[in-house]
Amino acid sequence: MIKPYLLVVTGRPGSGKTTFSKKLSSELYLPLISRDEIKEGYVNTFQKRHSELPDDTNKVVTDIFFATVKNLLDSNVSLIAEAAFQHKVWESKLEALKSKAKIFMLICKVEDEIAQKRYISRGLDNPMREYFHGDEGVDLTRKGYKAEVKPYGEPRLDVPTFFIDTTNDYSPSIDELRLKIFKVIQE
User: What InterPro entries would the database entry show (predicted)?
Assistant: First the structure.
C-alpha cells in the first residue's frame, strides 16, 4: 500500500523554518500547512489581539492544525507541516501520524543568537506579528528589556531526520534533501 509522506519542518523560533518550508513547498510541489497561518486565520475571525482571546487559544489552534494534517493524509495527500514542534508537547500527536504517512523530520538550525535576533527583528519590523501571536520577547525588547532565549526541545522521533543549517543559505540544499527524501520514499 502506498502511503502519503509528511515532511515536518520545525525548529526554534527564528530558525528560518517558515521561509524554508515555503521554498520547499514551491520546489517540491507540496501543500504547506503552517500552524502560525492557521492561528492568524483563527485570530482574524475574532478580530481581537491574541492576548484578548481565551487562554486555550493555542490548544484550539494546535488541534485544528493536526486535524487538517490528518484529514489530508487520510485523503492520500502528501504535504509539508510547519511549526515549532517541541518534543514534550507534540510527540504524541506526531507519533499518531506515523501509521498514516511516511514521516520525515526536517529541523532548521542556527546559533541561538541568530535565532533570537531574527525573532526580535521580525516582531519589531511587523507589529501585526505581536497582534496575532503575542510574542512576549518582542514586547520586552520594545520596553528596553533583554529577551531571554527560551529552551527548545526538538522532536526526537524514530523517523528519517535531517538538520538544515539556515544561517546563510540552506545546507544541505533543497536539491540535496529532495534526493535523500525520494531515495527513502522509493525503498
Answer: P-loop_NTPase
| Phi and psi angles of residue 122, each rounded to the nearest 5 degrees, phi first | -65, -35
Q: Which range of residues forms the domain containing residue 77?
A: 5-182
Residue 101 located in a structural domain: yes
**pLDDT digits 0-9 by tens, 73-100:** 999 999 999 998 887 878 889 999 999 9
- 64 lies in a domain? yes
Distances (CA, A) of 2 to 5, 108, 186, 187: 9, 28, 10, 12
CB-based contact 79:32 (threshold 8 Å): yes
